[in-house]
Amino acid sequence: LVICGTYYTSKDVNEVEVHKDNLICIDHSGTISRTLSPDDKKYLALLNEAREKDRLIKLQANQYLLPGFIDLHVHAPQWPQAGLALDLPLSDWLNHYTFPLEARFTDKGYARRVYHDFIHELLSQGTTTALMFGTIHNDANLELARQAVNYGLRAFVGQVVMDNPDQTPTYYRNQTSAAALRDTEKFIQEILELRKNTSATVMPVITPRFVPSCTDKALLGLGQLAHQYDLPIQSHLSESNWEHEYAIKRFGMHDTAVMDRFHLLTDKSVMAHGTQLTAADLTTVRQRGTTIAHCPLSNIYFGNGVLPTKKLLRLGNRVGLGSDISGGYSPSLYHNIRQAVKSSQMLTDGVDSSQPVEQRGVTGSRITMANAFYLATVGGAKALHLKTGQIVPGFQADFQIVNGHQRLMELSSADIFQRLMYQTEQQDIQSVYVAGKRVYGKD
Ligand code: GUN
Ligand code: FE
Predict the structure, then answer these.
(1) Best substitution site from 73, 209, 336 to test ligand 1's pocket, by max atoms within 8 Å of Cβ?
(2) pLDDT tens digits along 322-334
(3) N or C end of the chain: which has fewer CB within 10 A?
């Protein structure tokens, strides 16, 4: 397959490169084998050969190729309640909406319907990889993994563990710590089997819901399983004041130290939110190589604060971007990219100089659109140790083709990038590819 068109890709955290009218060659395994610019000697020959063999996808003048996005934190079973009850505090939202909904996934038929719809939704939003929470139910989680394989989403699926009777309802909890660990190991083996049989791009993920919902026994066992099977780990970390205080009360330390004590912070760990992390917590997280999934939409409702993204990047902490459906209401990473930029502006609070004016914000907190785009692509890929998120040879051919909006003025390539980030909606996404295979298309 050869794609001919203009593409954007991160060069580094601060810079996005544009490549105009390039040829992007994709090999049989779904990897980008080479990219050629129009001044390359072989350009015309390759273009003609691809056209003759009917292997050419030629983008129209207003179309652009972007890497597929990586959603680093999303709850697939919460899709039916996206946009509901966001005015409640986190613990009420969990107990009155989220837990009752997730409990319904004992019903495999319901799971199939929801996950079928949701995987399609993610792809249609330009998301090609997702690190997902499932529920505590083996069968439903397996269904989620199967739907992802069927539709071609690169999927990391977590069997949720929540066994602490103090913080979980009777109708939705693992009955014992031992049962929770057994279910997790069973799920790991089922997914590893699925991978064998389908060359599928699906991975099991160790998933303690968050510190309050887990017993010490479960946390200890999950840390051991993660190391035994060398698996990614996901959870929520320092999301709300309530959760933060809870860890201090129960353990006499922050939840970062708790996670660390149970060996749950590794370079394959992704911790969502982190709005309440202290300098010492950030150091621990950084030293372990753990990634923070920034969920800017969700944090407005449940984060009790703004993640100081710029500070994390400056410190060298790893950061990616998550929709956190349904703490966030939108599965679109475009919406989250915009919110990441907007939230950082508000953290700055309009004061970004050394002027001694009344200063409620933090100087130098702004992130750029290039920074936010990096989080949604490279940041996520690094967290999951994947060669995706960039359009360069040797990387996976995970793309989205986007229709740009026509306007009555000429725009530079840099301006077109800004406009794409600010104005792309679901209906503007023409088609989506994972490993060179078309997994979504409008036509
Ligand atoms: N903390 C524990 N569970 C959840 C969840 O489902 N969503 C969010 N945002 N925070 C959580
Ligand atoms: Fe979450």
Answers:
(1) 209
(2) 999 999 999 999 9
(3) C
